[in-house]
Write a structure and sequence with these properties.
By secondary structure, the protein is α+β, with helices and mostly antiparallel strands. It has 17 helices and 20 strands. Its EC number is 1.17.1.4.
Length: about 500
């Protein structure tokens, strides 16, 4: 048992025993460390001005991640090394290749956003799996906003920096790994004080015991949602349980019943495995969940457990037939994912129960899974509506099975049961499409809000059925119905 959290900022090790459990890394850096290069812009994980690097030793490999410091709690950094803009130039004062490229290509205008861009760009050079072409650079920088509209020179700087050689961090890798290895003691952390309590269980069994002892505690994995409860909602969380580094919850496994994703696996970590199982939804939806900073922290299961009706992951996973795994003490249970959502803000989970993981079945060769996210902006936007479809056709062209799930159409992510019934067993042709579009009106009565009107949502939901027909219908199928307002957010990129 340990009663402190320990992490590095730059080359200095910090041991903290009394930091409030919801103290954000941004506030701690600026107010207690004087590291004012990390800026506060939106304070909700959208603008990227607060971007820092979090480096962890995973196995014997250093993993570099760009994250939003404004919605990272300090307590989540136990065992890590944090780098801010003040740490990026070499010890002899030489600019990092990214910084030099920003100078050479005039990538800084007013300068407020520049530190965040630099941190994202440094992480982009280090991160595995990020494409280095134009689209990859757009994705890499989608979480950083420039109010001076200086994107073109920033992108040129990034392209140039990608071609630069090794940086001084490469020479320091062995020393960084050694210092992080010294922090890995496998201990459970318990801290209590006048500002609240913190638990960091070392194992999933320890998590189960903690939740039974403290059923009102708030579990935090990435804090990309919970962080906003604190920074924007000003909520007080008396007891935080951080689960992001529990080994059993960080598993991604191919099992006989499908792909298993543990509760602490982030979207960025899961993307390659998800793309193998659900390639089209990965391209259309998963790459647009937040930004790299958000996907580096936010988890697949956290997106489920928070129960938002506009979470992008659940509709796709429901359509794919995913099953959710929960644990309460020593008792485990599984359920179809759609059964987890009961009503707005209400899920089928006891106070001391927690999500342990989710399993996504591998679709058969005759099953097509499609999903489309509809939003006003391509990058960094919340869905107005998200439709997901799993269509299995028999050899004679009949619909052997159909699963349809929507987000943004009801108080929870929900199946379109009447629409499915209108399609199942019928030939997949234009009359079936028309019947399905008509049945959609019986499934949903959406609200009007700031993102879309009820008319828009109903119209687009029906239009997505037409898009499914055009995409997965008989060869040469074309929409027989006038498609209204079927926008999927593929307009100007945030960096366009």
């Amino acid at each position: 048992m340990r009663h402190t959290i320990r992490f590095y900022v730059g080359d200095e090790c910090h041991t903290l025993a009394h930091t409030p459990p919801t103290r954000t890394l941004l506030d701690w850096l600026r107010e207690e460390q004087g590291r004012t290069g990390t800026k506060e812009g939106c304070n909700e994980g959208d603008c990227g001005a607060c971007t820092v690097l979090v480096v962890r030793l995973e196995g014997d490999r250093l993993v570099w991640r760009a994250v939003n410091a404004c919605i990272q709690f300090v307590c989540m950094l136990d065992g890590a090394q944090v780098l801010t803009i003040e740490d990026i130039r070499a010890p002899d004062g030489t600019l990092h290749p990214v910084q030099q490229a920003m100078v050479d290509h005039h990538g800084s205008q007013c300068g407020f956003c520049t530190p965040g861009f630099v941190m994202s760009m440094v992480a982009g050079r280090k991160a595995a799996g990020l494409a280095q072409d134009e689209r990859g650079i757009d994705d890499m920088l989608a979480g950083n906003l420039c109010r001076c509209t200086g994107y073109a020179p920033i992108v040129r700087a990034m392209r140039h920096a990608m071609e630069a050689g090794p940086d001084h961090f490469d020479a320091m890798a062995q020393d960084m790994a050694a210092r992080l290895e010294r922090l890995r003691d496998g201990a459970t952390v318990e801290i209590s004080g006048p500002t609240g309590s913190l638990s960091i269980p070392a194992t999933v069994d320890g998590l189960a015991a903690t939740m039974q002892e403290h059923p009102d505690a708030r579990i935090v994995a990435g804090a990309t949602d919970v962080g906003l409860w604190v920074t924007k909602g000003l909520r007080v969380l008396p007891h935080v349980v951080s689960i992001g580094q529990i080994p059993e919850l960080r598993r991604i496994e191919h099992r006989p019943d499908g792909l298993y994703v543990g509760a602490a696996v982030t979207w960025q970590e899961a993307r390659a495995a998800l793309a193998d199982v659900l390639p089209q939804p990965d391209e259309e939806v998963f790459r647009r969940i937040g930004s790299v900073q958000v996907r580096n922290a936010g988890t697949v299961c956290g997106n489920i457990a928070n129960g938002s009706p506009i979470g992008d992951g659940p509709p796709v996973l429901i359509a794919a037939g995913a099953r959710l795994h929960l644990r309460r003490g020593d008792v485990r249970r599984s359920m179809a994912l759609e059964d987890f959502f009961i009503d707005y803000g209400k899920q089928d989970r006891a106070p001391d129960e927690f999500v342990e993981g989710v399993t996504i079945p591998v679709p058969g060769p005759d099953t097509a899974i499609r999903a489309w996210k509809v939003s006003k902006r391509f990058d960094q936007d919340i869905s107005a509506i998200l439709g997901a479809f799993s269509l299995t056709l028999a050899p004679d062209g009949r619909i052997a099975d159909i699963r349809i799930a929507f987000g943004g159409m009801a108080a929870t992510p929900r199946r379109a049961s009447h629409t499915e019934a209108a399609m199942r067993g019928r030939i997949w042709d234009e009359p079936t499409l028309e019947a399905a579009r008509a049945a959609m009106a019986m499934d949903f009565a959406p609200i009007s809000d700031m993102r879309a009107s009820d008319w828009y949502r109903r119209t687009v939901a029906a239009n997505l059925l037409t898009r499914l027909y055009a995409d997965c219908g008989p060869e040469g199928a074309r929409a027989p119905i006038s498609v209204q307002a079927a926008c999927t957010g593929r307009g100007e990129h945030a960096h366009g």
